[in-house]
Amino acid sequence: MNTHAFSEQRLPPWRRAVLKVGSSLLAANGGGLSTEYAQAIAGFVVASHKAGREVVVVSSGAVAAGRAIMREQPHDGAEMAERQALAALGQARLIGFWQGLLDRQVAQVLLTHDDLRNRRRYLNARATLSALLRHRAVPVVNENDTVSVDELKLGDNDNLAAIVAALVDADVLFIATDIDGLYDADPRRHPDARPVEVVPQLTPALLSAAGGTGSAIGTGGMRTKLEAAQRASAAGVATVLFNGTRADVLEALAQDRLRGTRIHALRSRVAVRKHWLQNAPAEPGGVVVDAGAANALVEKGASLLPGGVVTAEGDFRRGDMVEVLLRDERGTRRVARGVSQYSAADIRRVARRHSRDIESILGYSYGDTIVHRDDLMLL
Protein backbone atom coordinates (compact mmCIF):
# COMPACT_ATOMS: atom_id res chain seq x y z
CA MET A 1 0.00 0.00 0.00
CA ASN A 2 1.30 3.45 -0.86
CA THR A 3 2.19 5.56 2.19
CA HIS A 4 2.90 8.88 0.46
CA ALA A 5 -0.12 11.19 0.74
CA PHE A 6 -1.00 14.24 -1.31
CA SER A 7 -0.79 17.54 0.53
CA GLU A 8 -3.47 20.20 0.18
CA GLN A 9 -3.17 23.05 -2.33
CA ARG A 10 -5.41 25.95 -3.26
CA LEU A 11 -7.11 26.00 -6.64
CA PRO A 12 -7.12 29.18 -8.73
CA PRO A 13 -10.55 30.84 -9.11
CA TRP A 14 -12.83 29.29 -11.72
CA ARG A 15 -16.31 30.02 -13.06
CA ARG A 16 -17.04 27.19 -15.51
CA ALA A 17 -15.79 23.61 -15.38
CA VAL A 18 -16.16 20.27 -17.09
CA LEU A 19 -16.31 17.28 -14.73
CA LYS A 20 -15.53 13.85 -16.15
CA VAL A 21 -16.84 10.82 -14.27
CA GLY A 22 -16.01 7.29 -15.40
CA SER A 23 -17.83 3.99 -15.17
CA SER A 24 -15.64 2.74 -12.32
CA LEU A 25 -17.13 5.44 -10.07
CA LEU A 26 -20.74 5.02 -11.17
CA ALA A 27 -20.93 1.23 -11.28
CA ALA A 28 -18.71 0.62 -8.32
CA ASN A 29 -19.79 -2.94 -7.54
CA GLY A 30 -19.61 -4.26 -11.08
CA GLY A 31 -23.36 -4.13 -11.57
CA GLY A 32 -25.73 -1.28 -12.37
CA LEU A 33 -25.43 2.36 -11.38
CA SER A 34 -24.58 2.98 -7.73
CA THR A 35 -24.70 6.08 -5.53
CA GLU A 36 -21.78 4.84 -3.42
CA TYR A 37 -19.41 7.38 -4.95
CA ALA A 38 -21.80 9.34 -7.17
CA GLN A 39 -23.54 10.96 -4.19
CA ALA A 40 -20.43 12.85 -3.12
CA ILE A 41 -19.54 13.71 -6.72
CA ALA A 42 -23.02 15.18 -7.21
CA GLY A 43 -22.58 17.06 -3.93
CA PHE A 44 -19.56 18.80 -5.42
CA VAL A 45 -21.65 19.86 -8.44
CA VAL A 46 -24.46 21.15 -6.21
CA ALA A 47 -22.02 23.10 -4.02
CA SER A 48 -20.47 24.61 -7.15
CA HIS A 49 -23.92 25.74 -8.32
CA LYS A 50 -24.57 27.39 -4.96
CA ALA A 51 -21.31 29.30 -5.41
CA GLY A 52 -22.58 30.68 -8.74
CA ARG A 53 -20.50 28.38 -10.92
CA GLU A 54 -21.37 26.24 -13.94
CA VAL A 55 -20.51 22.58 -14.40
CA VAL A 56 -20.82 20.39 -17.49
CA VAL A 57 -20.73 16.69 -16.61
CA VAL A 58 -19.14 14.21 -19.03
CA SER A 59 -20.39 10.86 -17.82
CA SER A 60 -19.64 7.28 -18.76
CA GLY A 61 -21.82 4.46 -17.49
CA ALA A 62 -24.46 3.86 -20.15
CA VAL A 63 -23.12 0.42 -21.12
CA ALA A 64 -22.78 -0.58 -17.46
CA ALA A 65 -26.35 0.52 -16.80
CA GLY A 66 -27.61 -1.36 -19.84
CA ARG A 67 -25.76 -4.51 -18.80
CA ALA A 68 -27.56 -4.44 -15.44
CA ILE A 69 -30.89 -4.31 -17.29
CA MET A 70 -30.10 -7.17 -19.67
CA ARG A 71 -28.28 -9.33 -17.14
CA GLU A 72 -26.28 -10.98 -19.91
CA GLN A 73 -22.97 -10.54 -21.68
CA PRO A 74 -22.66 -9.68 -25.40
CA HIS A 75 -22.78 -12.72 -27.67
CA ASP A 76 -19.63 -13.85 -29.47
CA GLY A 77 -19.43 -12.52 -32.99
CA ALA A 78 -21.85 -9.67 -32.32
CA GLU A 79 -20.14 -7.91 -29.42
CA MET A 80 -20.17 -4.40 -30.90
CA ALA A 81 -23.86 -4.49 -31.82
CA GLU A 82 -24.69 -5.91 -28.40
CA ARG A 83 -22.67 -3.21 -26.62
CA GLN A 84 -24.40 -0.55 -28.68
CA ALA A 85 -27.75 -2.01 -27.66
CA LEU A 86 -26.65 -1.97 -24.02
CA ALA A 87 -25.64 1.68 -24.40
CA ALA A 88 -29.06 2.54 -25.85
CA LEU A 89 -30.83 0.78 -22.98
CA GLY A 90 -28.62 2.27 -20.32
CA GLN A 91 -28.47 5.89 -21.50
CA ALA A 92 -31.98 6.74 -20.30
CA ARG A 93 -31.24 5.19 -16.92
CA LEU A 94 -27.95 7.12 -16.72
CA ILE A 95 -29.68 10.46 -17.27
CA GLY A 96 -32.37 9.59 -14.73
CA PHE A 97 -29.63 8.62 -12.29
CA TRP A 98 -27.98 12.05 -12.56
CA GLN A 99 -31.33 13.84 -12.41
CA GLY A 100 -32.03 12.18 -9.08
CA LEU A 101 -28.73 13.43 -7.65
CA LEU A 102 -28.53 17.01 -8.88
CA ASP A 103 -30.31 20.20 -7.86
CA ARG A 104 -31.46 21.44 -11.27
CA GLN A 105 -32.72 20.17 -14.60
CA VAL A 106 -30.43 17.70 -16.34
CA ALA A 107 -30.07 17.75 -20.14
CA GLN A 108 -28.78 14.83 -22.20
CA VAL A 109 -26.20 15.73 -24.86
CA LEU A 110 -24.89 12.88 -27.02
CA LEU A 111 -21.83 13.62 -29.13
CA THR A 112 -19.28 11.84 -31.25
CA HIS A 113 -15.74 12.93 -31.94
CA ASP A 114 -16.85 13.52 -35.54
CA ASP A 115 -19.41 16.05 -34.29
CA LEU A 116 -16.57 18.00 -32.74
CA ARG A 117 -14.17 17.73 -35.67
CA ASN A 118 -16.67 19.17 -38.15
CA ARG A 119 -16.65 22.95 -37.73
CA ARG A 120 -20.35 23.49 -38.42
CA ARG A 121 -21.46 20.70 -36.11
CA TYR A 122 -18.95 21.97 -33.56
CA LEU A 123 -20.63 25.37 -33.61
CA ASN A 124 -24.06 23.78 -33.23
CA ALA A 125 -22.89 21.77 -30.21
CA ARG A 126 -21.30 24.85 -28.70
CA ALA A 127 -24.47 26.90 -29.16
CA THR A 128 -26.60 24.16 -27.60
CA LEU A 129 -24.36 23.78 -24.55
CA SER A 130 -24.17 27.57 -24.10
CA ALA A 131 -27.96 27.82 -24.20
CA LEU A 132 -28.33 25.01 -21.64
CA LEU A 133 -25.91 26.72 -19.26
CA ARG A 134 -27.67 30.02 -19.77
CA HIS A 135 -30.91 28.32 -18.69
CA ARG A 136 -29.13 26.93 -15.61
CA ALA A 137 -29.44 23.31 -16.72
CA VAL A 138 -26.75 20.70 -16.16
CA PRO A 139 -25.60 19.23 -19.48
CA VAL A 140 -24.68 15.56 -19.07
CA VAL A 141 -22.52 14.70 -22.06
CA ASN A 142 -21.72 11.22 -23.28
CA GLU A 143 -20.48 9.71 -26.49
CA ASN A 144 -23.24 8.59 -28.80
CA ASP A 145 -22.22 4.98 -28.29
CA THR A 146 -25.19 3.55 -30.19
CA VAL A 147 -23.76 4.76 -33.53
CA SER A 148 -20.09 5.57 -32.81
CA VAL A 149 -18.33 2.30 -33.47
CA ASP A 150 -14.77 3.61 -33.31
CA GLU A 151 -15.41 5.72 -30.25
CA LEU A 152 -17.09 2.85 -28.43
CA LYS A 153 -14.06 0.65 -29.10
CA LEU A 154 -11.82 3.31 -27.58
CA GLY A 155 -14.22 4.08 -24.75
CA ASP A 156 -12.32 7.32 -24.29
CA ASN A 157 -14.55 9.84 -22.54
CA ASP A 158 -11.43 11.42 -21.02
CA ASN A 159 -10.47 12.94 -24.36
CA LEU A 160 -14.09 13.76 -25.10
CA ALA A 161 -14.14 15.72 -21.83
CA ALA A 162 -11.05 17.66 -22.89
CA ILE A 163 -12.69 18.53 -26.20
CA VAL A 164 -15.87 19.62 -24.42
CA ALA A 165 -13.80 21.77 -22.04
CA ALA A 166 -12.41 23.65 -25.02
CA LEU A 167 -15.85 23.73 -26.65
CA VAL A 168 -17.52 25.53 -23.72
CA ASP A 169 -14.50 27.71 -22.82
CA ALA A 170 -14.12 26.04 -19.44
CA ASP A 171 -11.64 27.36 -16.91
CA VAL A 172 -10.76 23.90 -15.64
CA LEU A 173 -11.27 20.22 -16.44
CA PHE A 174 -11.91 18.04 -13.39
CA ILE A 175 -11.25 14.33 -13.91
CA ALA A 176 -12.46 12.03 -11.15
CA THR A 177 -10.30 8.91 -10.77
CA ASP A 178 -10.19 5.96 -8.38
CA ILE A 179 -6.72 6.87 -7.04
CA ASP A 180 -5.55 10.05 -5.32
CA GLY A 181 -3.85 11.57 -8.37
CA LEU A 182 -0.74 11.22 -10.49
CA TYR A 183 2.32 9.42 -9.12
CA ASP A 184 5.81 9.09 -10.53
CA ALA A 185 5.12 5.34 -10.88
CA ASP A 186 2.09 3.07 -10.70
CA PRO A 187 1.19 3.09 -6.96
CA ARG A 188 -0.54 -0.28 -7.26
CA ARG A 189 2.75 -1.90 -8.22
CA HIS A 190 5.24 0.42 -6.55
CA PRO A 191 4.39 1.19 -2.90
CA ASP A 192 7.15 3.81 -2.77
CA ALA A 193 5.67 5.83 -5.70
CA ARG A 194 5.57 9.54 -4.87
CA PRO A 195 2.71 11.96 -5.57
CA VAL A 196 3.06 14.45 -8.39
CA GLU A 197 1.01 17.38 -7.12
CA VAL A 198 1.74 20.07 -9.73
CA VAL A 199 2.62 19.52 -13.39
CA PRO A 200 3.77 22.70 -15.17
CA GLN A 201 4.01 20.73 -18.42
CA LEU A 202 3.40 17.09 -19.29
CA THR A 203 6.53 15.26 -20.38
CA PRO A 204 7.08 11.90 -22.13
CA ALA A 205 8.48 10.57 -18.84
CA LEU A 206 5.26 11.33 -16.98
CA LEU A 207 3.16 9.81 -19.75
CA SER A 208 5.22 6.63 -19.69
CA ALA A 209 4.90 6.41 -15.91
CA ALA A 210 1.10 6.40 -16.15
CA GLY A 211 -0.47 3.03 -15.39
CA GLY A 212 -2.97 1.11 -17.50
CA THR A 213 -6.65 0.52 -16.97
CA GLY A 214 -7.47 0.03 -13.31
CA SER A 215 -10.98 -1.37 -13.55
CA ALA A 216 -12.82 -4.11 -15.41
CA ILE A 217 -15.78 -1.73 -15.75
CA GLY A 218 -14.09 1.39 -17.04
CA THR A 219 -11.93 1.40 -20.16
CA GLY A 220 -9.76 4.45 -19.49
CA GLY A 221 -6.53 4.36 -17.48
CA MET A 222 -4.27 7.10 -16.14
CA ARG A 223 -2.52 7.43 -19.49
CA THR A 224 -5.74 8.45 -21.27
CA LYS A 225 -6.35 10.98 -18.50
CA LEU A 226 -2.94 12.51 -19.06
CA GLU A 227 -3.52 12.54 -22.81
CA ALA A 228 -6.79 14.37 -22.15
CA ALA A 229 -4.96 16.82 -19.87
CA GLN A 230 -2.42 17.39 -22.63
CA ARG A 231 -5.21 18.19 -25.07
CA ALA A 232 -6.91 20.50 -22.57
CA SER A 233 -3.62 22.23 -21.77
CA ALA A 234 -3.04 23.01 -25.45
CA ALA A 235 -6.52 24.59 -25.53
CA GLY A 236 -5.73 26.80 -22.54
CA VAL A 237 -7.61 24.70 -19.96
CA ALA A 238 -6.00 23.47 -16.73
CA THR A 239 -6.75 19.91 -15.53
CA VAL A 240 -7.30 18.59 -12.03
CA LEU A 241 -7.04 14.87 -11.17
CA PHE A 242 -8.59 13.78 -7.88
CA ASN A 243 -9.94 10.72 -6.09
CA GLY A 244 -13.66 10.50 -6.78
CA THR A 245 -14.12 7.67 -4.27
CA ARG A 246 -13.34 9.94 -1.30
CA ALA A 247 -16.12 12.18 0.02
CA ASP A 248 -13.66 14.27 2.06
CA VAL A 249 -11.65 15.08 -1.09
CA LEU A 250 -14.82 16.19 -2.89
CA GLU A 251 -15.99 18.34 0.03
CA ALA A 252 -12.61 20.08 0.11
CA LEU A 253 -12.64 20.48 -3.68
CA ALA A 254 -15.93 22.37 -3.45
CA GLN A 255 -14.03 24.87 -1.27
CA ASP A 256 -11.16 25.14 -3.78
CA ARG A 257 -8.89 22.93 -1.69
CA LEU A 258 -7.29 20.16 -3.75
CA ARG A 259 -5.67 16.95 -2.64
CA GLY A 260 -4.66 15.62 -6.01
CA THR A 261 -2.79 16.71 -9.14
CA ARG A 262 -3.08 20.03 -10.93
CA ILE A 263 -1.81 20.20 -14.52
CA HIS A 264 -1.21 23.69 -15.85
CA ALA A 265 -2.41 25.00 -19.19
CA LEU A 266 0.34 25.80 -21.65
CA ARG A 267 -1.19 29.16 -22.47
CA SER A 268 -4.23 31.16 -21.47
CA ARG A 269 -7.53 30.46 -23.24
CA VAL A 270 -7.45 34.00 -24.64
CA ALA A 271 -4.00 33.45 -26.14
CA VAL A 272 -5.02 30.11 -27.66
CA ARG A 273 -8.19 31.60 -29.12
CA LYS A 274 -6.36 34.62 -30.50
CA HIS A 275 -3.72 32.45 -32.14
CA TRP A 276 -6.38 30.32 -33.83
CA LEU A 277 -8.37 33.32 -35.06
CA GLN A 278 -5.23 34.92 -36.40
CA ASN A 279 -3.87 31.89 -38.22
CA ALA A 280 -6.86 29.86 -39.43
CA PRO A 281 -7.22 30.23 -43.23
CA ALA A 282 -10.11 32.42 -44.34
CA GLU A 283 -12.52 31.43 -47.09
CA PRO A 284 -12.55 33.45 -50.35
CA GLY A 285 -14.86 36.45 -50.31
CA GLY A 286 -15.98 37.99 -47.05
CA VAL A 287 -18.63 40.06 -45.31
CA VAL A 288 -18.83 43.67 -46.49
CA VAL A 289 -19.94 46.13 -43.78
CA ASP A 290 -20.74 49.82 -43.57
CA ALA A 291 -18.70 52.43 -41.68
CA GLY A 292 -21.00 52.32 -38.65
CA ALA A 293 -20.57 48.59 -38.22
CA ALA A 294 -16.79 48.86 -38.73
CA ASN A 295 -16.62 51.55 -36.06
CA ALA A 296 -18.68 49.46 -33.63
CA LEU A 297 -16.33 46.51 -34.11
CA VAL A 298 -13.15 48.55 -33.68
CA GLU A 299 -14.14 51.14 -31.09
CA LYS A 300 -16.74 49.30 -29.01
CA GLY A 301 -15.69 45.67 -29.27
CA ALA A 302 -19.16 44.80 -30.57
CA SER A 303 -20.39 41.75 -32.42
CA LEU A 304 -21.26 42.05 -36.09
CA LEU A 305 -25.04 42.36 -36.53
CA PRO A 306 -26.97 41.97 -39.80
CA GLY A 307 -28.05 45.63 -39.77
CA GLY A 308 -24.49 46.76 -40.46
CA VAL A 309 -23.87 44.28 -43.26
CA VAL A 310 -23.95 45.50 -46.87
CA THR A 311 -23.53 42.11 -48.54
CA ALA A 312 -21.58 38.87 -48.46
CA GLU A 313 -19.18 37.86 -51.20
CA GLY A 314 -18.14 34.33 -52.08
CA ASP A 315 -19.78 31.04 -51.21
CA PHE A 316 -18.65 30.33 -47.66
CA ARG A 317 -20.71 28.28 -45.21
CA ARG A 318 -21.69 28.55 -41.58
CA GLY A 319 -18.66 27.97 -39.39
CA ASP A 320 -16.11 29.15 -41.95
CA MET A 321 -13.45 31.72 -41.17
CA VAL A 322 -14.23 34.91 -43.10
CA GLU A 323 -12.84 38.42 -43.39
CA VAL A 324 -14.92 41.49 -42.54
CA LEU A 325 -14.39 44.18 -45.18
CA LEU A 326 -15.10 47.91 -45.27
CA ARG A 327 -15.55 49.30 -48.78
CA ASP A 328 -15.76 53.07 -49.42
CA GLU A 329 -14.21 55.78 -51.58
CA ARG A 330 -10.81 54.86 -50.17
CA GLY A 331 -11.11 51.31 -51.45
CA THR A 332 -11.56 47.98 -49.69
CA ARG A 333 -9.95 47.47 -46.27
CA ARG A 334 -9.89 44.46 -43.96
CA VAL A 335 -11.42 45.33 -40.61
CA ALA A 336 -11.53 41.96 -38.85
CA ARG A 337 -11.71 38.21 -39.32
CA GLY A 338 -13.89 35.71 -37.55
CA VAL A 339 -16.15 32.67 -37.63
CA SER A 340 -19.39 33.29 -39.51
CA GLN A 341 -22.58 32.08 -37.85
CA TYR A 342 -24.35 32.07 -41.23
CA SER A 343 -23.56 31.10 -44.81
CA ALA A 344 -22.87 33.75 -47.46
CA ALA A 345 -26.24 33.05 -49.07
CA ASP A 346 -28.06 33.53 -45.75
CA ILE A 347 -26.16 36.73 -44.98
CA ARG A 348 -27.16 38.24 -48.31
CA ARG A 349 -30.81 37.59 -47.41
CA VAL A 350 -30.64 39.20 -43.95
CA ALA A 351 -28.25 42.06 -44.78
CA ARG A 352 -29.52 45.46 -43.57
CA ARG A 353 -32.25 43.78 -41.51
CA HIS A 354 -32.75 43.71 -37.75
CA SER A 355 -31.58 40.66 -35.81
CA ARG A 356 -35.14 39.90 -34.74
CA ASP A 357 -36.08 39.39 -38.42
CA ILE A 358 -33.56 36.60 -39.04
CA GLU A 359 -35.87 33.72 -38.20
CA SER A 360 -38.83 35.09 -40.16
CA ILE A 361 -36.63 35.59 -43.24
CA LEU A 362 -34.64 32.34 -43.13
CA GLY A 363 -37.08 30.09 -41.32
CA TYR A 364 -34.46 29.39 -38.64
CA SER A 365 -31.92 31.26 -36.53
CA TYR A 366 -28.42 30.53 -35.24
CA GLY A 367 -28.50 33.64 -33.07
CA ASP A 368 -28.62 37.41 -33.41
CA THR A 369 -25.07 37.90 -34.68
CA ILE A 370 -23.35 37.33 -38.00
CA VAL A 371 -19.98 37.10 -36.24
CA HIS A 372 -19.94 37.03 -32.44
CA ARG A 373 -17.29 39.14 -30.73
CA ASP A 374 -15.86 36.01 -29.04
CA ASP A 375 -15.18 34.59 -32.53
CA LEU A 376 -13.76 37.78 -34.00
CA MET A 377 -10.31 39.34 -34.18
CA LEU A 378 -9.56 42.87 -35.32
CA LEU A 379 -6.96 43.39 -38.03
Summarize the structure.
By secondary structure, this protein is α/β, with parallel strands linked by helices. The chain contains 15 helices and 17 strands.
Q: Percent helix among the residues? A: 25-40%
Low-confidence stretches: 151-155, 213-220
Q: Could you give the count of β-strands?
A: 17
Apparent shape: globular
Question: What portion of the residues fall into strands of 2 or more residues?
Answer: 15-25%
Identify the CATH architecture of the largest domain: 3-Layer(aba) Sandwich
Largest sheet: 8 strands, mixed
- At the first level of CATH, the class of the largest domain is Alpha Beta
Rounded to the nearest angstrom, the distance between the terminal CA atoms is: 58 Å
Radius of gyration: 23 Å
Q: What is the CATH third-level topology name of the largest domain?
A: Carbamate kinase
Number of helices: 15
Q: How many independent structural domains?
A: 2
GO biological process, one term: L-proline biosynthetic process
Binding site for ATP: 20, 177-178, 219-225
Family: Belongs to the glutamate 5-kinase family.
Protein name: Glutamate 5-kinase
What does the model show?
- This protein has two domains: 9-272, 3-Layer(aba) Sandwich (Carbamate kinase), CATH 3.40.1160; 281-378, Archaeosine Trna-guanine Transglycosylase, Chain: A, domain 4, CATH 2.30.130.
- The protein is 39% helix and 21% strand.
- The chain has 15 helices and 17 strands.
- The strands form four sheets. The protein has an eight-stranded mixed sheet with strand order 4-5-3-2-6-10-12-9, with helices on both faces. Strands 14-13-15-16-17 form a five-stranded mixed sheet.
- The model is unreliable at 151-155 and 213-220 (pLDDT under 50).
